[in-house]
From TrEMBL:
Annotated GO MF terms: endonuclease activity
Keywords for this protein: Endonuclease, Hydrolase, Nuclease
UniProt xrefs under InterPro entries: DNA-SBD_ScoMcrA (IPR058813), HNH_nuc (IPR003615), PT_DNA_restrict (IPR011396)
Domain of life: Bacteria
Entry protein name: HNH endonuclease
Domain ScoMcrA-like DNA sulfur-binding as annotated: residue spans: 4-148
One Pfam family cited in the UniProt record for this chain: DNA-SBD_ScoMcrA
Species the sequence originates in: Streptomyces drozdowiczii
NCBIfam families, sorted: PT-DNA_restrict
């Protein structure tokens, strides 16, 4: 059985670019637990709050519950659920999962495969990360679920389930924005080499976002991370959106984040393509959290 291919299909039901990271997040969490204790059994009532936190932080802004993946992941052939009454899930009802003592874990065949081939765990994790989240969040997500990946595991990928990135995108995007952060104007260099500037995908590469200037922004490292976390976004008039959900009381948070609300983007050059409306709309729908703040005074 090809566990990498099976892992890659966890998000195939998604339509029209909608994000559905529920199952991938649960499997990442289960892999981390298996890595720690070799069993990975998760009692729903014990892990519900932590799974909910992961969904709130790394999922789309829509309301959701960890009961959904806990039950439905069984149909993907990688997960099993048992209750006090025996094998089988009681359904997606939170009360039923709690009351019946529901526990879930990776299926025996997958646990055996992970024991026989320890590197499989890292390769499965890489597939889940590549197909569901942008690179700026990979390391943070591993820390959030408690997953420890070795450098060789991080570098090794399931090539059968990945499409190649265009290495030229970074240079094209940074050139289009004249090597300045489109949000704050940061343009730091060491000698002639830009430092702390990155080419951000507006529509994530994992969700068919093209490696093109019209899907890119030149951003400093901070604002790239905040764009991918849904703190920052783009309005229809190419002005910066800041989520009302973001809270920061320090002068730094005010200056570097809150004060951006309503500001126009810096760039791109007149001859370069601006962010395409469909990519901007995808980010607003699938990544940006909550309601935008009013323009800063």
């Amino acid at each position: 059985m090809d566990w990498l291919e099976r892992t890659a299909t966890l998000r195939q039901w998604s339509r029209n670019g909608a994000r559905a990271p529920h199952k991938p997040l649960l499997v990442l969490y289960a892999l981390a637990r298996f890595q720690r204790d070799g069993s990975g059994e998760l009692r729903y009532s014990s892990v519900e709050a932590e799974l909910k936190r992961l969904l709130d932080e790394y999922g789309p802004g829509r309301p959701t519950t960890p009961a959904y993946p806990f039950h439905h992941l069984v149909s993907d052939g990688v997960w099993e659920v048992r209750t006090d009454r025996g094998a089988g899930s009681p359904g997606t009802g939170v009360r039923e999962l709690r009351a019946t003592g529901a526990t879930g874990r990776l299926v025996p065949e997958l646990r055996d495969a992970l024991r026989r081939e320890p590197s499989l765990l890292g390769r499965m994790a890489r597939v889940l990360l590549d197909l569901n989240f942008p690179p700026s969040l990979h390391e943070e997500l591993c820390e959030a679920v408690g997953l420890e990946l070795q450098p060789a595991e991080i570098a090794e990928a399931g090539t059968a389930v990945r499409r190649g990135r265009d290495p030229r995108m970074r240079e094209r995007v940074l050139t289009a924005y004249e090597y300045r952060c489109a949000f704050c104007g940061y343009d730091g260099r060491i000698g002639a080499v830009p430092v702390g500037l990155e080419a951000a995908h507006v529509r994530w590469w994992a969700f068919d976002g093209p490696d093109e200037v019209e899907n890119g922004l030149c951003l400093c490292s901070l604002h790239h991370k905040l764009l991918d976390k849904g703190v920052l976004g783009l309005g229809a008039d190419d002005r910066i959106l800041v989520s009302q959900s973001f809270v920061g009381h320090s002068a730094a948070a005010g200056a570097h984040v809150i004060a951006l609300a309503g500001r126009p983007l810096i760039g791109p050059q007149p001859s370069a393509a601006p962010v395409a409306p469909d990519h901007r709309a995808w980010h607003a729908r699938e990544v940006f959290h909550g309601v935008p703040r009013a323009a800063a005074g």
